[in-house]
Amino acid sequence: MLLFAYAGNMDVRKFSETVPSAKRIGIARLPGFSFTFNKKADDESSKANIIPSDDPVDTVWGVLIEFNEEERSNFYNPDTWSSDLKLETINCIADNGEIYQAEAFFAQPHAVNTHVLPYDWYHKKILQLAEDAGLPVEYISKISLMPFKIDADEKRRAKRLKRLRG
After folding, report:
1. pTM of the full predicted structure?
2. Residue 152, class by beta-carbon neighbours within 10 Å (0-12 exposed, 13-18 middle, 19+ buried)?
3. 46-52 and 59-66: which strand pairing?
4. What is the pLDDT of residues 74-93, one digit of tens each?
5. CA-based angle 9:66:143, to the nearest 5?
6. pLDDT (0 to 100) of residue 82
7. Which residue of 70, 123, 129, 155 is 20 to 30 Å from 142, comparing CA positions?
8. How many alpha carbons fall within 13 Å on the CB side of residue 121?
9. Which of 132, 122, 155, 164 shows the shortest CA–CA distance to 62?
10. DSSP state, residue 118
């Protein structure tokens, strides 16, 4: 199985703690889609999502991860897992130009809220993961300009920021 990871799962080392066979294929892009923070979270913030775009220049960058199909339920089981996200099949283009059919997470319509911002620590985490993955500088810069809010829960904020570099 192939996963196109564009948010937290871009950290293949951490992902492999749950999915031991996971191995990074490389970076890839998903043309015709936009990266956004609009998946509502339980903590009054938003998380990353990708949405179809009518703009032909819009592209989402991410990491292509290969793993054994038997381990799929280690990270995604629609019967027991949140109904807020769904894996859908997409075609993405690897850095070398090769086209791959992979799956990517999409927030379901009932889980989308365009009026809630991500927390500062989550925004920073996504930027660090994108940098670590080697995604294009222009793409990372675009995400860095997206609005976010300071987490009012100081304890949670301090804990999450401590996990990040710098």
Report:
1. 0.94
2. exposed
3. unpaired
4. 888 766 566 888 999 999 99
5. 35
6. 66
7. 155
8. 17
9. 132
10. P
**3-state SS track over 49-97:** EEEECCCCCCEEEEEEEECCHHHHHHCCCCCCCCCCEEEEEEEEEECCC
Q: Which residue reads 């990353």 in tokens?
A: 48
pLDDT at 56 over 90: no
Q: Looking at the DSSP assignment, which residues form a beta bridge with residue 37?
A: 48
Contacts of 51 (CB under 8 A, 6+ apart): 33, 34, 36, 38, 106
Longest dimension (CA), the chain: 45
pLDDT, one tens digit per residue, over 17-30 is: 999 999 999 999 99
Residues 48, 38: Cα–Cα separation, whole Å = 6
Tokens of 66: 């290969």
List own/partner pairs for 54-60 with CB under 8 A and 24 or more apart: 56/31, 56/32, 58/31, 58/32, 58/33, 58/34, 59/29, 59/30, 59/31, 59/32, 59/33, 59/139, 60/6, 60/29, 60/30, 60/33, 60/34, 60/35
Amino acid residing at 150: I
For 23, the token pair is 């191995």
Query: 17 in helix, strand or coil?
Result: helix
